[in-house]
């Protein structure tokens, strides 16, 4: 590959997950981004492809237990990474991947694009303006239809748990709304109550967090959305501040502001904006060692929070979380 080319070239590692949205933004980039190859989730195939193509970035989209090994291979080959989440399924693997990424000086973007969707983007802009004051209480909902699930969803060692797979999105909602207020402690419960043939896949979960600012946050997760003519999911976020509150229905395309003395009003929504392409286009050139950027730090922190929440649910204990280094 010509390193001086204006086009940034990538490869796709794996064929499961949400890679279609990333590929769609690559295809819509007008030639500024391209995919130069793809393979399944075999480490041997991935290593050969990375070595032969020498891409600028890799899109890792595989089932959860295969994410960390593929991401590590990409980092070792000097590639920036867009990856499915969670980044790893246990704290040890997460720290190993963190060290590999740091040693390579590459950046990582987790597939957590909801903050770019118009309702949440509009709400975040209002929060940043100070209209509702500081966020003090946050509530999130992630609900999905069960639909058809591969058999490995029932295997905790492959799936990793519903809190890391789905709950990390709720944690990202909180992160977007608070401007990166990290969790300092988490309690949680989870259970499989309606899909006994998939014992490793919890279908109801509850999370409760204290944030560094003192704000409190709670999230519910479920696979119990009725199989009726409605959207597959129905994401929701409520943010209560000192002076007002926001309700955000991400899938319904609506965000509503409530303030004292005035009637509730729906926020004007910005046009849809790409999440991945601007980040990919701004990446340092291949071979340039870079300090972790904001997305890299966020991807590792939110994964760590999700793994801690799963531990809290598994053990029935509140799990403290260290503040991230400044």
Describe this structure in words.
There is one protein chain. By secondary structure, the chain is of the alpha/beta class. It has two domains: 8-112 and 275-291, NAD(P)-binding Rossmann-like Domain (Rossmann fold, 3-Layer(aba) Sandwich), CATH 3.40.50; 114-273 and 308-320, 2-Layer Sandwich (Dihydrodipicolinate Reductase, domain 2). It has nine helices and 14 strands. The protein has helices at residues 19-27, 43-53, 67-76, 91-104, 118-129, 156-159, 162-178, 277-281, 294-315, and strands spanning 8-13, 33-39, 57-60, 80-83, 108-110, 135-143, 183-191, 204-211, 216-222, 236-241, 244-249, 254-259, 265-266, 319-320. Strand 8 (204-211) and strand 9 form a beta hairpin. Helix 5 crosses helix 7. It is globular.
Q: Topology of this structure?
A:
Layout: E1 8-13, H1 19-27, E2 33-39, H2 43-53, E3 57-60, H3 67-76, E4 80-83, H4 91-104, E5 108-110, H5 118-129, E6 135-143, H6 156-159, H7 162-178, E7 183-191, E8 204-211, E9 216-222, E10 236-241, E11 244-249, E12 254-259, E13 265-266, H8 277-281, H9 294-315, E14 319-320
Parallel strand pairs: 1-2, 1-3, 3-4, 4-5, 6-9
Antiparallel strand pairs: 6-10, 7-8, 7-14, 8-9, 10-11, 11-12, 12-13
Helix pairs in contact: 2-3, 3-4, 5-7, 7-9
